[in-house]
Amino acid sequence: MVGALLGVFMILALLMAAGAKDTGMAVQAWTFIGLAGAFLVGMSMWAGQLLGRNPFDQSEYENAIVKWGVAASMFWGIAGLLVGVVIALQLTFPHFMYFPEWGFTNFGRLRPLHTSAVIFAFGGNVLLATSFYVVQRTCRARLAGGMWPWFVFWGYQIFIVLAATGYLLGITQSKEYAEPEWYVDWWLTLVWVAYLLVFLGTIWKRKEPHIYVANWFYLSFIVTIAMLHIVNNLSVPVSFTGSKSVQVFSGVQDAMTQWWYGHNAVGFFLTTGFLAIMYYFIPKRVNRPVYSYRLSIVHFWSLIFIYIWAGPHHLHYTALPQWAQTLGMTFSVMLWMPSWGGMINGVMTLSGAWDKLRTDPVVRMMVVSLAFYGMSTFEGPLMSVRAVNSLSHYTEWGIGHVHSGALGWVGYISFGALYCLVPWLWKKKALFSKSLVEWHFWVSTIGILFYMISMWFAGITEGLMWRAYNEFGFLEYSFVETVDAKHISYMIRALGGLLYFSGACLMAYNLVRTVLGHGEAESFDTIDPKYARPHQPVLQPAE
Description:
The structure is a single chain. The chain starts with a helix and ends in a 28-residue tail after the last helix. It has a domain at about 1-45 and about 60-215: Cytochrome c oxidase-like, subunit I domain (Cytochrome C Oxidase, Chain A). It is globular, with a radius of gyration of 24 Å. The protein contains 17 helices and two strands. Helices cover about 70% and strands about 0% of the residues. The chain has a two-stranded antiparallel sheet. With about 550 residues, it is mainly alpha-helical. The chain has helices at about 1-20, 25-50, 65-90, 105-140, 150-170, 180-205, 215-230, 250-285, 295-305, 320-350, 355-360, 360-385, 385-390, 395-425, 435-465, 480-485, 485-515, and strands at about 235, 245. It comes from Hyphomonas pacifica. Its EC number is 7.1.1.9. Its cofactor is heme; heme b; Cu(2+). Pathway: Energy metabolism; oxidative phosphorylation. Keywords: Cell membrane, Copper, Electron transport, Heme, Iron, Membrane, Metal-binding, Respiratory chain, Translocase, Transmembrane, Transmembrane helix, Transport.
């Protein structure tokens, strides 16, 4: 079934390539054919090596796809952070980081490449890998759907490559966090529906009666992102063999739809999905139950109800009706409470295991991620208040806010999960080097602080300069003077990003050496018997 579906789409892509209205579309169609063909060939080679073995043995967990997800997460994470460092240097030193003869290196093309790579490629693969791992363990059931989980994984990689190459070719619908054009959106919709069905099917056939709270958070992320993606990307292709489309919404309706999508992409992709990671990996790592399971349920329902209404706070002082702006601001302030309830629940899970903050750098990284989550979810409601927003909006303060959440919360909880998964999946006693985790933590934490503080200074300076008037009632500063005032902050921001990127490289090196079994990462079957895990029947009790 998966092979037949891919074959149909390859034929469609071939027709689109043959009749392409523009060069970009032709390149994208051939890219899809190459990637889908590689998937088909790989699937055929894999099937040929089975030799009668059942690849979908229901008595075993599907770990191979999680391993691929871990590898993809690390690859895309390094790539996305590298592009981030490049564009930070472009803003800091435009006189020698600008190449007019190479249009694909311009900031306008690299910036969406960076955001999509770190959010959808890195973050998305972390969510795919962890959700497939967690739902199996907590449901005590193998992933449903046979080959369909693999279609979800490789289909998602195809989406990432099509989006990234499209940006470099200048193909974009110019919507924040939703830049891919219509044909990429349609493909992602198909992949995402398959993802939802695989996840629901696994829960449906569970052997554990209770549905653990992490699965509720994962499910809310999958369902809501599907709804947001479909509505915000409603468009009519100019031609079915061309890359351009026309949006269904326009004007203030388009703005409202875009920031309903944009803020909830933050809320449900970068928050509820990663809270699911928190609710599984922190208790698992410290070997303690969730501090308050009742609070986790209250956290879930209050968060998903309130978050969906907060988007209009991005549109203060615009043509959006003021009642809608006020609605968004009110719900944003209300979000502070459930957000901090979740943070407190995660931190207090360490009750009785506080010593692990000192002895286990992976635990420290995940707990510090909660501190950043708490700080970001206080700063966000603060910035949504209209009086504060009049100073902060359109300035670097917003950039600092986004990156404190992205690097501190999403990055650190993701890194913690990957540090947990690699020894578990490859059956190693420990990571290759604990000291490298320490180095990763401190180098990247210093990088985050450099980034945040420099952008706070730049943003507040910028906002105050924009609203300064002279005695004649004219603006005190020209725009170029506000840009010049931020130069030192830009330099510090670039240094912070470079430090964070360096920490991620240390992590990648550590994980590769762990998989290879070097250093402290000995396999369980080669170490002293006292360390060996006793044999346990598979799919036994829910972890």
